[in-house]
Structures are given as C-alpha cells and as structure tokens.
Please model this.
Amino acid sequence: MSLSLIVNPFLRPPRTNGVSESSHLFCALYPAKHIRPGKLKVQASGNTLGTYFRVTTYGESRGGGVGCIIDGCPPRIPLSEADVQVELDRRRPGQSRLVSPRKETDTCQIYSGIAEGLTTGSPIMVHVPNTDQTAHDYSELSRAYRPSHADATYDFKYGVRAIQGGGRSSARETIARVAAGAVAKKILKKFSGTEVLAYVSQVHNVRLPEHLVDHESLNLDQIEESIVRCPNAEYAKKMIAAIDAVMARGDSVGGVVSCIARNVPRGLGSPVFNKLEAQLARAAMSLPASIGFEFGSGFAGTLMSGSEHNDEFYIDKRGRIRTRTNHSGGIQGGISNGEVLNMRIAFKPTPTIEMKQHTVTRDKHETEILSHIRRDPCVAPRAVPVVESMIALVLVDQIMAQYAQCELFPINTALQEPMGSLSSTLPTFPVEKVGCVADPSVGL
Model:
C-alpha cells in the first residue's frame, strides 16, 4: 500500500533527517487512497456560535479592543448603538464595589449592517475599544502560572499566549457576547414576545429559595434594584455581606445565576444530538468560570419519584395544552413545550486572589505567586447579562431553524402553533389534510 502525506506547512514540526516525526504517524493513520490532494483542512478555532444566526467574537483583554460580527441577522430590525449600549452598561466593570474596579466605559461602535436605523441583512460589526490598560499589573505572570487560570493550558496547547489580561480567556471577551445578545433580544421581543431574564440565586452558601421568586411576574427592575442582582431584598443583603467578607481577606467565592425565558415558541430544538437543552448548555458552559448547568428540576429531580416529577397536562382557558408543573424546565424530548424555560448556571470562585499560592514557572521551577490584579471577588453579579445574552443567541438560532424546517410550508393548526406575531398570517391547513395520496395522473 502506497502512503502519502499531504499537510499544510503550518502544521509541520521541525524535520529530522528530512522527515518529521509526525509524518510517520500521519501516514499510518491516513493512507493515500483516503486523502484527496488539497483537501486536508484544520478547523478548530471555536470563535463562532450558531448555525443560522452566527456570531463570531474577536479581541483580547489588553489589545486594541473586543467585538463581534453577527451574520444572519434578519433585515429591517430597528437597531442603534444605544440599544447595544444599554446591555453593555450592565456588564461593564467599575459599576459597584462588588466588581472589578477597572475603569472602562465599554462604549460600542457599529461599523456595518445598519442603514437609516435598520438592519440591512448584511453582517453587523460591533467594536468596543480597550482604554484602561495596565500592562505592568501582569509582569509577574510572564514567568509563573496562575492556579486554575488558563495560563498553563494555553501554553500547553499553543506554545505561546497573550500574557497581559489572559488574552482570549479573559472575561472581557464576553463584551462581544453581550453586544450580540442585545441584537438577539430585540429579535426575540419583536418576533415572538420572548423575554430572557437572569438573576443571582446563590453566592457561596447563601442560596435564594426558588419559591421566593415568581417567574411569571419577575422583571428587570426587580433584578437591577440590588448591586448583586438578586430580586429578593433580604437575600440580596446576605449575598452582599458574603462577598464583602471574602473580599476583605483577598479571597473570592462562586455563585449561581438562574435564568428564565418566557413566551418561548413551541417546537424549538431537535431530537437526539441537537436537543434544546444541549444547545443551551453548550452556550452557558462556554462562559468563562462556568462549571455547571442545570435545567428544570436538575439534579434535585433524582430525589423525586416519577409520579412526583411528571408534569401532568391540562387544557387552559384559551384551549391550549399546558402542564400543571414545570419540572421539565420548559423542555421535553429536547423540544420546547411552551412553558417557561428555567435553568441555572454555576460559576466557580474567581481564581485571581490576593493570597500567596504555590505554582510553577514557565521554565518549570516551583515558586509562589501573589496577584494584585483587578478582579471580581464573585463573578455572578456581572455574569447575569452575559447569561441572558447566551440564552437569547441560542433561542434566535433555534427559531430560525424551526422556521426553516417546520414553517416553510403551512402548519398543521390542530397540533402546531405559529411561532410568533409575524407568523400569524401564515397559511394553515387542518389536521385531516396532513396525509395525501399521490394521483398517478399527475407528473412529479
């Protein structure tokens, strides 16, 4: 069997005696008959989310700025920089004593995709410049790895990294997600009246009981009333005290952000690999410092019996099929059922702390490190708008997928509902006409 190696130059390691060591392995794995010349491609960047509503983020914490390119946005959506800025202001640092003191206005600029205040359907570029850069804060990090940061693994993977600010692993990258999320939220509101809201439900061991939050009436003002973004005043005070206490000793704590989505169209998500909860989990777990995801009853559901956990159906006053409980979190079989989506995302304690820790240097010597870098003692409060944005991005992408597959032709009104206000004018047909018999006299 003849063997052939076809590889782009950037993939080739240094050669020894004219043949690289990896060439032998590559040839063993890929015989010539399985390789088409010029067809070998490497696609492993991971900077793009979505299939129909695609968002690509760029930039680093200490570079010229960060931003995103949104491709697939529907045309004729009213959009301005002010619409995006409202969401960015909720995420920016320096807004309270509980977050990083870095002074950034995070002022956005939209460079393309807008004409006369409306989206044009072409790619939208949103850019936010970095202004408060203090590279000297990171001088010690040029030689030693911060425990539980991405410093070491970036070196392990790439052999090089942006030392100042953590590069792409910095939470500053989430600016781009929030900017794109602002556009997604506008689409959801306009198309189906869908609203995505998140709030802090736990800081360290202070946990807000779920029954104290009414997910049907919860609003943004209730969430933003507290600097910790907990909609319950009593528990908000406890959470703030917990963060203050750990911040005073230079340490950090983790937290949980709960997120709901109301008025979500039925039918979003697909069976097996593209279940809606799987898509939501992927988006949430891509966030910096995220370490866990639950939807519906989550792990607590394992403590219930089937008779307790099952969501029984009933017909509401409008003649719609509903569930009396929502242990499923608005998703059954990987597909949205029209109930409120309910999920929780756990975030680890901020790894940057003002305490001595054991570590190693890049040249493999054990040492100690003490960081004096600006940081959030708990990431949960600022993660709230970021979580909302990620969920909104997934829902818009899934709405487009559902429309393309299941509403391209008239829907079955006996079993299906049009997804949004814009869908109410679509033609429909009754259930008895779902099937058809081919007429042999008609050519196909």
Summary: DSSP finds nine helices and 20 strands in the chain. The first strand starts at residue 48 and ends at 49. The first helix runs from residue 21 to 29.
